[in-house]
Write a structure and sequence with these properties.
Chain lengths: ~160, ~230, ~600
Amino acid sequence: MQEAINFIEARIKKYGKYLIPILQDIQQFYNYLPEEMLRILAEKMHIPFIDVYGVVTFYNSFNLAPKGEHTITVCTGTACYIRGGPKIVEAVARELNIEAGQTTDDMKFSLETVNCLGCCAIGPTVVIDGEYYGEMTAQKTLKLLRTIKEEKKEYEQVALYEST
Amino acid sequence: MPKIRIDGIEFDAPKGWTILEVAKFLGIDIPTLCYHEGLTPWSGCRLCLVEIVQGNTTKLAASCTYPAEEGLIVRTASKKIINTRKVVLELLIAQCPTSRTLQDLASKMGLNRVRFKPKWEHCIYCGLCVRMCKEQMMTRSIGFVNRGKQLKITTPFDKTSEECRRCGGCMYICPACNLRCVGPNPQTIVCGSCYNKLQPTCLDVYDSYSCWMGLKGECGTCVTEKPKEKKEI
Amino acid sequence: MSKLHSTNQLEALYKKVLSDKAHKNRIISISSGTCGQARGSIKLVEAFQDAIIDDKDKISLKVSGCHGFCAAEPNVIIYPQEIFYKNLKPEDAPRIVQSVLNDEIIPELTVSQNGTNFIHLEEIPFYSHQKRILLHDNPLIDPTNIEDYLALGGYKALSKAFEMQPEEIIETIKLSGLRGRGGAGFPTGRKWDITRGQKSEVKYIICNADEGDPGAYMDRSLLEGNSQSILEGMIIGAYAMGATKGWVYVRTEYPLAVQNVILNIDKAQELGLLGENILGSGFSFDIEVVRGAGAFVCGEETALIHSIESMRGIPSQRPPFPAQKGLFNKPTNINNVETWANVPKILVNGADWFANIGSETCKGTKIFSLVGKVKNTGLVEVPMGITLREVVYDIGEGSPKGKKIKAVQTGGPSGGCIPENMFDLAVDYESLTGAGSIMGSGGMIVMDEDTCMVDFARYFTNFLQGESCGNCSACREGTQRMYEILTDITEGKAEEDSLELLEELAHVIKNASLCGLGQTAPNPVLSTIRYYKDEYLAHIRDKRCPAGVCKTLIKYQIDANNCTGCGLCTKNCPSGAIEGELKQTHSIDQEKCIKCGICSDVCKFNSIITE
C-alpha cells in the first residue's frame, strides 16, 4: 500500500497536474490500472474521482482489467481490413474462445484490436508482445499462436519466412 | 457592443452574450433541451441550431454557445433548420420515447413519425444532471464515462457514490425521467397528445428504472400529477 | 559535441561534420522504420553488422527510417550509386557487402518491372514519378545521430530565419502557398499571421502527430526517420509567431516515433538548438512530447488541446479558435507534422521554389500512403495536381493479382471514394472535395472488384460510431443509426426506402454536428451512394452482394473444375463443414459453414468460389 502511494507521489512530482502521463506510467508498471491506484491518485491530486474515471474510460489504451501474459493485437485499420484483417481476429477469437478485448480464463492470452498501427503497406499487421508481424494471414497467426502455446522460442522465424 | 442581425432585426448585443440569449431577449423562440439558465451551456442536444452566414454560404451552429460577434447575420427558422431539428429530435425520441419533454417538443414541431427502431433507453446524454451536480450542488458524484456508442452517465465503477448527498437535483432537472410518459403510440413511438391539450391525458407513473438515490418514487420527484383515486404520499 | 552559442559556431560544426564524412562515402542504408522491422529488418541489420566487421573503415552502415517503398522491404540502398536491393533475407548480407567492396551489382536483388531490371533508385518507376523533397533525406539519416541531419544542411534554415524579421518569415510562408497538410488545407501563412496578431505574452505551438486515419502513416515515417526537420520547422514557426513553448502530440500507437522524437529533442537541447537563447539570438523556446492515449477524435484541434490538458478529448465549438484561445486558454497554433517539415525547405530554397511545384491552387508536394489492393505499396511523395491514374498505375503498378481496380479511397474515415473512371482527376484539395471526397492526411487506399462498397461504408461508420466522443446527439446517434441501416442492407434486410432515409440522415449529421468528425462522418456513405448506387440497390432489391463479400448474402462453394481433392481445406475448416474423399472433388455443407473464408485462403487451386 505504501509502495503504491510512493509510486504515485513520485509520478505527481514528475508530471505535476497532468493526469494522462501518470496513468500511462501506472499502466506500464502494473500492466493495467487497478481501482485502488486510481482512488489514491484522485485523492493525492485533489481531482474528483469521477473525473479520473471519465478520463480512463474515454481513451482506448487504458485497461481497467489485468491483461494476459501474451497480448495479441490485430490491426483493423482500413488497409488491413480490406486485406483480410477481420478473418485473423475471428480465427484467433475462435482458437482462444474469447472475444476481442477479452482475456483467456487462464490469463495467458489477451486479444485486442487497434485502429491502425501505421504499417498499412504491409497489412494485415499483427503485434504479439511488442513484436510486429506484417502480411499475416489467419493461418500464419494461428501457427504463431500455437508455437507460443507450446513455448517454442523460435516462433519469430516461423512467421517471417513461412510462405503460407 | 457587437452589432448582430437576427431574423432581420438589428441588435446591439451586450458583450459576452450568445445568440440564444439575444433570441430570448427579443422574444424569438428557439427550442432547447440541454440548455438551462443556471448551468453552463453544453451544445450537445443540437436542437437550438440556427443558420449563420459564413462567406457566401451558410452553416448551422448551436445558438446556446455561439458568441454574438460583430457583423453576425443569423436566421433562426428556415427549411434547412427545421428539417434538421426534426431529424435530430427523431434520433432523440428513438433513444428515449418515454420522455414527456421530448414528446412535447415533437408535438410543438409537428413531428409525427419516427423512422428509427426505439432503443427504450432512459438517458439522452444531455448532461444536465452532470452539470447540476457539479455546478449547483458542487458535488461531482456522477459524470460522463466511455465515449461514442458506449457513452453513459454514471458513478465511478458503477458503485454507489459516497459523494452523493441524495439531493435529488439530477432527477429534478432530467428531461427524460422528470415526467415519464407512457403515452407513446407503440407503432410510431410519438405521442402527440399532451402538449396540445389543456390537461395531460396520460398518467405519469414511476417504474423500476435505476434511481441513484434508491428511493424509487417515494421522494415524490418522479411522480407528478396523480389521479384523484391514488393515495396521498 | 558542445553547446552552440552562435550561427558562426554552427557553421564551424558543419565544416567538421562534412569533413568527417568526406571519406566515408560508401554507405549501406537499411530501411528500419516500424514497417521495416515488421518485415524482419532487425535481423537483417544484425547480419550486416556481422558481415562488415572486417571492413568497417571502408563501408559504413546506416540504420535509417522508412525509405518509402514498403512492398520492397526489407531493402537497402547503396550509396553513392543509389543501388536499390529489395526483399532481402539475412543470408543476403555477406554477398551484398562483397559486391559493394568489388563495385559489382547483384541483378536478382534489384527491382523488376515489366521484365526490366532497375538498378538505381531514380530509375525505378516507383520512385521516378515522385518528387521527394521531404522523404529524400530519410535513407541518409540515422535517427539517433543529429550529425546526419546537419550533414544534409540541417538547421541552415534556422540560421537564415534568425537573420529575418518574424513578419518576413510569415510573408515567405504566405508567398510559398503552403497549405495545412493535416487535411483541411488552410493556408499556413495566414494561420501563423492570426496567431502572431494575438496580444499575449504567452503563446504556444503544437505539432499534431496524432495521425489517426487508418491507412495513413506518412507522419510516422517522418517522425521516426527525420524528426529534426519537424523540430527545426517548429523552432522557426515559434520564432515567427512569438511562441514560448511547443508540444509534439504523438499517438501512443507509434512507440518508435515517440522514442525518436524524444531522443532528437534531447540532442537538439544538447547542442543549444532548443532552450534558452538559441544560437545567441535572444530567442528561447523548448519542446515537450505528449503521448496520446488512443482516441481518433483527438486529431481534431480542440479535442487535442483537451487531451494535452489531461481531460476527456471532447471537441469544443469554434469560435473561439485555438489561435485566439487554445491550450490553457492561450493563443495556440496547431499544424500537422508534414506542414512543419516543409518549413525549413521553404526557408532555405525560397518561396518561389516551392510555389513552382504543384498546381495553381495547391503548391508543393504531398506524401500519400498508397496501400490496399495495389502492387507497389508504400509512401509516395508527389507534386500536387498529379493524376490518380499516374499514382495508381505508374507508381503503384496496378493490381497485384490482375484484378480490376474499382476505386481509390482518400481522406480516411472523413473522405470518400473516387471511382476508376475518374482517375484522371488531379489530386488537390478542391478537385477531391468537388468529387465528394477530401484530401485528408494522405491515406490512399486502392480497392478492387472484390471490395464491396456497401461493406466498406459500413466499416467506416462502425469505426466512427466507436470513435465519436458521444457528446453531440447528431453524431453519436446519427452514426449508430447509419450503421444500423447499413448493416440491414448488407444482411439483405433493408427496405426500398432505407436508402432515402440513409441519405437524409447523412445530410443531417453533416449539418448538425459540432466538430469535424461528425461533419465528415457521412462522407464515406454519401460518396459510395453517389458512385455505387447500383451496388446498394443490388443488396436491397436483389438481396445480392456483387463483390461477394457480405456474409449473409454469399455462399462458399467448391468449383469442381479446379478442385484436386487435396484436402487442405478440410484440414483447416474450423467448423468441419467440408467433406470429400482424397483426390475427389470436395463439397461444403452450407448448414455447418460459418463463412470464415479460411478455405479460400488456404486453397492453392482457386477452387473456392463465392456466390
